[in-house]
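Journal club prep — side note

Before the paper discussion, L.F. wants everyone to see what a predicted structure for a comparable chain looks like in token form. Sequence:
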Amino acid sequence: MFENWTKYDQETLSGLYRKMYQARLFEETLYFLFLEGKIPGSLHQSQGQEAVSVGVCSLLNKDDVVFSTHRPHSDYIAKGADMTRLIAEILGRRDGCCKGKGGSMHICDVSVGAMPANAIVGGNVPIAAGSALAFKLRGGRQVAVSFSGDGASNEGAWHEALNLAALYDLPVLFVTINNQWASSTAFKQSVRIECLSDRAASYGMPGVTADGMDVLAVREATGLALERARNGKGPSLLEFMCYRFVGHSRSDPANYRSKEEVEAWKQRDPVALTRARLIDSKLLNEMSAAGLESQVKAAIDAAVAEAERSSLPAPEECLEDVYA
């Protein structure tokens, strides 16, 4: 891991760690809020996938747009979404980004290009292609990014979107987060190929598989695909191999996975390894790392406190913002 470490300065590397730690602590904070009974419904989390979210979004501009899935928290934290509005939404509060009506699976912050998340597996993929079509028609260098899991790659909408994007050379990145499990179905039980990126060739676009536990490997692959998209050369399929440390949702103990498998992947925890590498390289020390982490924790605690001060929407508000 981290073969390209020397290409980056201290500010960039510590910034990547800060954002990854923020995404991890945000997810862990949501877990405790869920246990306290403060989050209605279920919760789909992504601990272990932070390097993908941060590596991709760290290279995007504010006016680039990202579309996420039913587990969108890390993707949108990485894109710079407002934490208070995200937490308020997840708590079902009026000041949430969707006025408390969308919940965890439908968060957004359009002001930074974090478009409404989509709970339908594969549902955001054609929408991202549609946004990319709009960008191409307008001209300019904006790019759309679709985040989806390995399970989505077997949905018809996924294939239709890739074909259309390639046909029209659309500025879109299709990011497949291959976390090895589509709900409780193992990746190797649903396809006969080693890499989902191999499917890119059938649509006439580049396909790359990279280490999704290494934030710099993610950045390298993303940078090449972004350059291609911004220069009018069309889409790319990026597959990042990683692991989701938690079950499909908070009601899933994930007993179908062996303890040995989980522990083996946890040895490659992207947040812990990035921290250790920063300290080993003397770009941070234990004191400065702890200070950075304390700042992140204080910001999340403040966001939770502010979100909890927001009131619940009144029942009659369910009739507002309804267009069909």
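L.F.'s comment for the group: The mean pLDDT is 94. Keep this in mind when we get to the figures.
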